[in-house]
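Example 4.3 (complexes with small molecules)
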Amino acid sequence: MTQQQLLDRANRYFVGGGNGEFRLPSEVNFVVSHGKGSKIYDVDGKEYIDFLLGSGPMILGHCHPQVVEAVQQQILKGTTFMALNEPAIHLAEQVVESVPCGESIRLVVTGSEATMFALRAARAYTGKDKYLRFEGGWHGVNDSVLHGARTLQPGEYPRTAPDGGGIPKSWSQDVLASPFNDIDRARAVIEAYKDELAAIVVEPLQRCILPRPDFFAGLRELATKYGIVLIFDEIVTGFRMAWGGAQERYGTVPDLATFGKTISGGYPMAALCGRGDIMDVMNGWRPADDPKRVIASGTFNGYPIGAAAGLATLDVLRQPGTYERLFAMGDRITREISAMGRELSIPLLVGGEGPVLQVLFTADTEIRDYMSMYRADKRKAFTYGVEMIKRGCFVTPFEKIYLSLVHTDEDINRLLDASREVLRGVIAKM
Ligand SMILES: Cc1ncc(COP(=O)(O)O)c(C=O)c1O
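Answer. The structure with pyridoxal-5'-phosphate bound is encoded below.
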């Protein structure tokens, strides 16, 4: 079947032509045939350097031989059992022993489940219902975290509203929001609601916004003081920003943390892990009438194939030089695209760091919070993304650039050459 015939069928059968929020405009839409290393190929044979990486999991690129081998071995031993299995136990040990907050763990399937269970555990542990999140953060698709992710009325803290249809308005009672990186505002909300707050949940690199040095230290201090569970959503940052995740890189240890993407090897696998006394609310041996007993179960929890793929991925990431390489690539891209902006008089900032970056077209001097991102020129960002795809660099026109361990210097040269061409030839004229 030709690519156009497949696209026509996708548009006919998938709602909106796709399977979620990710979508490409028709001028650059394509159907993936396969991926290998840092590249993906469409069914017409066009090659793209993949800077989306399946939204992050493919940190070793596509079909990494060690991951393929581990998965093949596991498939021959069986697919799923619900019962304890070897790869799941080894992955559990690896994550708990590597992550500063790790004491015990539950392996689940998606990041959305991990954040849902972490918040549920915090509510059960504290006996309180409310939680504080930060405007513009993303914690998956559960009803409660689709409140205040996108502030409908920017700046109306701590009030939240549903981010989309079908989310009960009643969550606004229990979900509070505050701007990322503003410890004074967060303190004011926390102190006003300290007797009702079960948790504070935060992405330690919120989308592409780096934390200010005082922000997490302040949250940690307030959470400890008032007995609130501090949750780092490390689904993007875990094992990516450092071996011990963002909590290691930014130097604050939360009570609980969620993981996904990197620990999955590209297969469905996620986890929540942290303080043993909090995690213990999920202990299935607690009596059924124990009001603290949290149900955090699932058919595929501890999925052996995902665990085998995750373990193989961590084995590669653990080798010396991993994070130096990821950060060297990211630093070079940041430096060179920032310089292009200055040379061409295009106001822009490169957010994020290391293997997670995002180009924002903005006259601001710092990407500090959601409002900084909100003010950035989305039309230019979209055009930049579309033009990059046309030039064989697969980036999402809405979101981040992800770097993998298998991107080569030549791949980065091509990203930079294409960026220069797009900035000079298209964006400078907008
Ligand atoms: C920070 C963060 N939390 C949670 C999630 C949800 O994970 P999933 O899409 O696996 O449900 C994502 C997904 O992109 C994420 O980036």
